[in-house]
Amino acid sequence: MDEKALQGFLRSAASAYAPKYTRFLDPAEAAELKRAAKALSLEAFFWGGYPDAERCLAAVGGESEPEKNQFPLTLLESPYNSRFSSITHRDVLGAYMALGLTRDCIGDIIIRDEAIYLCALETMADFICESLHSAGRVSLSFRKIRDLSRIPPPEGSYFRGTVSSLRLDAVLAEGFRISRTEAAGLIRSGRVKLNYLPIVRTDAPVSEGAMLSLAGHGRVSLRSIDGLTKKQRIGITFFRYQ
After folding, report:
1. Are 44 and 58 in contact (CB under 8 A)?
2. What's the pLDDT at 213?
3. Comparing C-alpha atoms, which of 51, 17, 20, 54 is closest to residue 37?
4. Kindly report the CA angle at 148 between 117 and 58, in degrees rounded to 5?
5. Among the CATH numbers 3.30.360.20, 3.10.290.10, 3.40.50.11720, 3.40.50.300, which is that of 156-241?
6. CA dihedral over 138, 143, 144, 148, signed as positive or negative
7. Mean pLDDT across 79-104
8. pLDDT over 90 (residue 54)
9. How confident is residue 152, by pLDDT bands cut at 50, 70 and 90?
10. What pLDDT digit, counting tens, does each position of 112-124 carry?
11. Pairing between β-strand 20-21 and β-strand 57-60 as defined by DSSP bridges
12. Domain 73-150 belongs to what topology?
């Protein structure tokens, strides 16, 4: 969504009695919409079909926060047999784009446990089910499902650590098991993103729920801040994505 479209959407949402919904936004677009909405004293709510979704719809305006089932998205599921063929996120996205649809019509693509899941705009769901029959060498047969809880949780592992402060350089060092000096250098070199946005401030505050990514080393999220230890350090819990 470009700046002109964003401002037009927010003006429309400001005078609406019910929430206005965007198409799927990537994390950077969502952050920009949230900033722009706040500047107009509007609150934005986000939902991508499951708690850890990266690409989400935004709801702005109305008198209250919409329920999750009010967001205009549909979950699609297709089985596939991983014993005879493999499939990647890129394969599915390429096959989808070949249908002539834009990226903002679908959210995350999840491949797990012999199934592929797509979060799609309600208005596009039937067309995708009728048209997306293969990706790479894999046959697909998507259907709409109501139970969003069927989306499997992200793969990865939890681990704990302690930091002297919740500055970005300290949290990044603990999350990626590197020295704080090295973490500071990586931040300044532009290799770090905080909540999906590039950042070069070593002293940027990191809050609970933040996502940190380091180029070439994956990403971790700060799942909880657990209070002070006996040595007066801050206990924290991370989740490292596979």
Report:
1. yes
2. 93
3. 20
4. 90
5. 3.10.290.10
6. negative
7. 89
8. no
9. confident
10. 878 899 999 999 9
11. antiparallel
12. Alpha-Beta Plaits (3.30.70)
Q: Which two tokens stand for residue 204?
A: 């940027």
For residue 9, what are its two tokens?
Answer: 């959407």
Enter the pTM of the model.
0.75
Classify residue 196 by burial, with Cβ atoms within 10 Å: 0-12, 13-18, 19+.
Answer: middle
CB atoms within 10 A of CB 242: 7
In order, the DSSP letters of 211-223 are EEEETTTEEEEEE
Where helices occur in the chain by DSSP H, the ranges are: 3-14, 27-39, 89-97, 122-131, 168-176, 180-188
Cα separation of 208 and 112, whole Å?
A: 27
**3-class DSSP state for residue 22?**
coil
Q: Distance between terminal CA atoms of the chain?
A: 30
